[in-house]
Amino acid sequence: MNDFQKQLNARQWEAVSYCSGPSLVIAGAGSGKTRVLTYKIAYLLEMGVSPFQILALTFTNKAAREMRDRIAAIVGPEKSRHLAAGTFHSIFARILRREAAALGYDRDYTIYDETDTRSILKNIVRELGLNDKDYKSSKIAHRISMAKNSLILPDAYSADRELIQRDQRAQVGETHRIYALYQRRLQQANAMDFDDLLLNTYLLFYRFPEVLEHYRKRFAYILVDEYQDTNTAQFRIIRQLAPPEANLCVVGDDSQSIYGFRGAEIGNILNFQQVYPTARLIKLEQNYRSTRNIVGAANSIISHNQGRIPKEVYVAEEKEDGAPLQIIEAYSDKDEALRVARQIIGMRGRQANYDEIAVLYRTNAQSRSFEEAFQNANIPYRMYGGLSFYQRKEVKDVIAYLRCIVNPNDEEALVRIFNYPARGIGETTVRKLRAAAAEHDVPLWDVVQAPLDFGADINRGTQTKVAAFAALLQSFQKVVEATGAYEMAVRVVEETGIKRDLLSDDSPEAQARRENVDELLNSIRTFEADQLEEQGRELALLSDYLPQVALLTDQDRRDDGSPKVSLMTIHAAKGLEFGVVFVVGLEEELFPAASARYNPREMEEERRLFYVAVTRAERLCFLTYAKARWMYGQMQYGAPSPFLAEIDSRFVRKASDFARPERAASPKPAAQPTPVRLRRLSPLEQSRPATIEQPRQRDAIAIGSGTLRVGTRVEHERFGRGTVVSLEGSGISAKARIAFEGSGEKNLLLKFAKLKVLDV
DNA sequence: CAAAATGTGGTTTTT
DNA sequence: CCACATTTTG
User: Fold this and answer.
1) I want to staple A176 with a disulfide (CB 3.0 to 4.6 A). Which of A158, A361, A529, A628 is the partner?
2) Distance CA A102, CA A358 (A)
3) Can you give the pLDDT at residue A615?
4) Which nucleotides of C are covered by protein (CB under 7 A)?
């Protein structure tokens, strides 16, 4: 115990040892937050608290795994084994499984992913006869998700005039009806989407106080990581489980709240003390990660935000100043990537190894030029994000089979595998079967097993095929309760013809597909082995495997471990640290994102994102921007990000235009870059993009429906009515800047934008 | 039923 | 420009 205290600073120790009542730990970037969480749990265990009584909630599997591993390393695997430490979703999924019946679900419910959701929404939109231009599945999915995250059920949604009006303004006034149907369909399929795992947990506790009481008693100590990212549903569940005087410890940093766009409520952390008035506030402000320059720069960035929990992150006396942040200007996105590559080559071996370096960008689309440049320069890299392993077609296909076997009502999975591998059951047949199911209001699986009973009009040959398909699934279902998950999966791959299908093709792509399926099978085997060993079970079933695989992401996969430069979005980098960080694409319109420009709340989130990016760096931080960027098939010219000017000039240097990137061969680093004082851009400069060859300003440009001049009133399909502010370029590169009523100013390529001239 | 043509839209996304 | 989704075509 004394040991713990010695390994922590005073604040950290206070956070660890304060266990009687609620506490709010504000953990500045690099202040040892994970350390506090793990030591706190270890401390509780050492104090004799039973692991069963501790609930630790995180946002990622990775964070949960790390926490468990580190605790196990301190107190040993025995004591840490039975901790309820996991993501909100996985812990709640387990509770919901146990209590499924209370909510009218079966314990083997399926967890639907976004793809499943989108596909259902598309069907509903079609059935309701709504036009899918306005009712795009992504848009509807987002609205429904936001509602669920705010604990708004379909009935409440329909009754909420404000919500309905907001939807109507966005041309999706029927969203509430879609939502209601969507929920019905999920229930029918015995399925929950990600948001339901939270929503239904809340409902469970709300409707069944005795169930809540049970979990309240059980979880005497609750810890929450990354509290600034909780949404309303998560907050309300925490409040259910932890009454005002409970031993609740939430840890987070309001300055690192970057998921507002997804429903995270920064207010949860800002107002914590109002909900838990007796909460002890502990601030961890000493940064152990970064140099003085980096911390100074980060502080100056975040100081431009209003509405923060006051704190000043500082650096220990003995920590070095380090190099100032270096701003690198490039001519184009390609040039930017090239300069970054040269820097990396230059410092390789001396200042940093590949795996200590990260390139962080605002959008995934920016990764391309870096991939190219790194390939040319022979720099090994690993890209995070992009499409996940579990989203690959072949992986999803196998999982779809497994899902159907465990939960035959899982309609999305059933439809997916109907004709894979090809068995001559075409679209028409599926449509007929689904129609029959809808008409009789029964699960699709019932119709599949006896099409004629439900009046599905299909011919003799097709009937045979459908019957064979049904028999195949039934044969699996019969044995699934008594067969290990791995054996089941292997049998599926072999007996359904998936294996044959994959082997029939010897293209490199098919080879990759086989490897992916192999990897999936291996992961199932590993899962089973872990279960047998850890839980001391005799058999790990598919129904044990599926709930957790649905909650896995690509980040949960290991790679080969050879040193590589990391390429990722800033969002993906949260919680990580690197010796050297390149924050790239610091341009107006890109970072901060153009859409945030007129919205102070979003601007603050963008700024926090920038703060997160810079604070990932331990020793060196580079900030780069390109004066021109290839985007949407056009060269776009932009100005440097206004964020650059917000950094206190003491902590940055701008690389002189003549300073060459260091050469690998040179014994000493190149000459110190010349300091440049960043000043705020005057309004005039801001409005004029810093272009190399500025496109000519134009007085008038003719388009299909008339002639555009400054001041011309126009209408755009998506953005509505607006007024032309300026015109430039000609031919295919003709552009207009238009101030839209409601959606702000936009630069449009006339080649693409279908504008209608309104007045004459 | 798959390949080819055409259309579309294009932040971030821990689960 | 490029990734994708949908529609058309052999």
Assistant:
1) A158
2) 48
3) 97
4) 1-2, 4, 6
